[in-house]
């Protein structure tokens, strides 16, 4: 594991506050993604707490951060995740990535790799293409799992239906 410097609280505070101010307004006329009042009502976070976040007086915990991120565009989350060297957050919606799309993408990556291996040798250019394709596939699969697991509430056990199997 690389020896990386810790992320300072002040840096997180500064980035979060800036991103929050860019996306959350006090009044409707500010042309922001949402107002403090609407965010409070929708996210069930007290208005004074949101004002503290906006004014840089405090940072949200994980639950409040996720609640806020749910109401804001993905660019908000990406600004904060960039502190950890992460990015590419995107809004997921049911149907954004279906299981069929994810499996079709997996088949495409496998077909590409099979073509590269047709001569029995995987050269450095082909290996790079395969790695990039696998990274993109991993993102697709993770998004599909996230969407599918939130859309389908699979029961822990299924009871027998009349005339059917368990």
Structure characterization notes:
With 166 residues, the chain is mainly alpha-helical. It folds into 2 domains: 10-84, 434 Repressor (Amino-terminal Domain); 99-151. Helix content is 57%, strand content 2%. It is built from 7 helices and 2 strands. It has a two-stranded parallel sheet. Helix 1 (9-23) packs antiparallel against helix 5 (74-81) and helix 6 (99-116) runs antiparallel to helix 7. The radius of gyration is 22 Å and the shape is elongated. Residues 154-166 have low confidence and may be disordered.
Report the structural category.
Answer: mainly alpha
**Unreliable runs:** 154-166
- Order of strands, main sheet, comes to 1-2
Number of domains: 2
Number of strands: 2
Radius of gyration: 22 Å
Q: Give the number of helices.
A: 7
The arrangement of helices and strands along the chain is HEEHHHHHH
Share of β-strand residues: under 5%
Report the CATH architecture of the largest domain: Orthogonal Bundle
The main β sheet shows up as: 2 strands, parallel
Summarize the structure.
This protein has helices spanning 9-23, 36-43, 47-54, 62-71, 74-81, 99-116, 124-151; strands at residues 24-25, 34-35.
SSE diagram, text form:
Elements: H1 9-23, E1 24-25, E2 34-35, H2 36-43, H3 47-54, H4 62-71, H5 74-81, H6 99-116, H7 124-151
């Amino acid at each position: 594991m690389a020896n990386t410097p810790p992320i300072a609280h002040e840096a997180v505070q500064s980035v979060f506050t800036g991103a929050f101010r860019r996306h959350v307004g006090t009044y409707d006329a500010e042309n922001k993604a949402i107002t403090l009042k609407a965010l409070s009502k929708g996210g069930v976070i007290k208005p004074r707490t949101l004002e503290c976040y906006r004014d840089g007086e405090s940072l949200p915990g994980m639950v409040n951060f996720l609640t806020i991120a749910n109401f804001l565009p993905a660019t908000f989350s990406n600004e904060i995740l960039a502190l950890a060297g992460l990015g590419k957050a995107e809004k997921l919606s049911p149907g954004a990535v279906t299981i069929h799309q994810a499996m079709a993408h997996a088949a495409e990556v496998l077909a590409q790799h099979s073509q590269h291996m047709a001569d029995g040798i995987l050269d450095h250019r082909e290996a790079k293409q395969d790695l990039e394709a696998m990274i993109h596939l991993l993102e697709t699969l993770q998004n599909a799992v996230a969407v599918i697991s939130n859309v389908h509430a699979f029961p822990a056990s299924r009871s027998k239906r009349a005339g059917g199997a368990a």
